[in-house]
Design a protein that fits this description.
The structure is a single chain. Helix 2 (73-82) packs parallel to helix 4 (136-149). The protein is of the alpha/beta class. The strands form 4 sheets. Strands 1-2-8 form a 3-stranded parallel β-sheet, sandwiched between helices. The mean pLDDT is 95. The protein has helices at 27-43, 73-82, 102-116, 136-149, 176-182, 190-198, and strands at 2-4, 49-54, 56-58, 61-63, 66-68, 87-90, 96-101, 123-128, 133-135, 156-159. The two termini are 34 Å apart. The protein is 36% helix and 20% strand. It has a single domain (2-198), classed as NAD(P)-binding Rossmann-like Domain (Rossmann fold, 3-Layer(aba) Sandwich), CATH 3.40.50. The longest helix is centred in the N-terminal third of the chain and has 17 residues, at 27-43.
Length: 201
């Protein structure tokens, strides 16, 4: 089951792990939390199930020659950079996020499918993330720096944050359980992914 760190609400400790309390603060997180509970109840003593808790997924996937992507924060930053437009970030910019490349996310599912038939008859949760927890401001600066190497010239624009969210300056996630049980290891860094994305026109 594809779930999200949005089920957890404001982080109560770091690094976040599978046992972190659930306290969703928006409808998306709430629907994922309800899904988790349904899967857990249905699978108990009946069949094995895995809940993959993913951090912020980003990246581009090529189908034939067509790039396919969602307007997530890194993707939007790169598209702005390629258009030489300002990269807008919400104040204060110190809010941290953890980012997961779509190919690493897909690989986690492949690993889960290969292991689940031998799992016990209940739900198991796994944190699927990367070691990179960066602030939005540092992320924008990284995109600008790399974009300049490719002769783009974006700038950074600070804008008022319309969201009423708790802004945390850390978003480290413990993926040791996924590493041990599934053999999960992320292969994409933000820098590697941004360089790939800037090369796609």
């Amino acid at each position: 089951f594809a779930t999200s760190f949005g089920t957890m609400g404001d982080p109560q400790y770091f690094p976040i792990d599978e046992n972190h309390p659930r306290n969703p603060m928006h409808w998306y997180g709430q629907t994922k939390y309800e899904g988790e509970k349904i899967v857990e109840e249905a699978s108990l003593n009946n069949f094995p199930s895995y809940l993959l808790i993913k951090s912020n997924v980003y990246g581009i996937h090529i189908i034939d020659t067509t790039p396919v992507f969602k307007p997530t924060v890194i993707n939007k930053f790169v598209e702005s950079a390629k258009a030489n437009n300002p990269i807008s970030i919400y104040e204060p910019g110190t809010q941290a996020r953890n980012f997961l490349h779509v190919k690493d996310a897909a690989h986690a599912y492949v690993l889960a499918v290969s292991k689940i038939l031998k799992a016990e008859l209940h739900a198991e949760s796994f944190c699927i993330a990367t070691p990179e927890a960066v602030s939005v401001k540092n992320l924008a600066e990284k995109v600008v720096s790399i974009a300049q190497e490719y002769d783009f010239s974006p700038s950074i624009k600070m804008v008022k944050n319309p969201r009423t969210e708790t802004l945390v300056e850390d978003f480290s996630i413990d993926t040791s359980k996924a590493e041990k049980v599934l053999g999960y290891t992320p292969h994409y860094t933000i820098e590697k992914a941004v360089r790939e994305m800037l090369k796609i026109h």
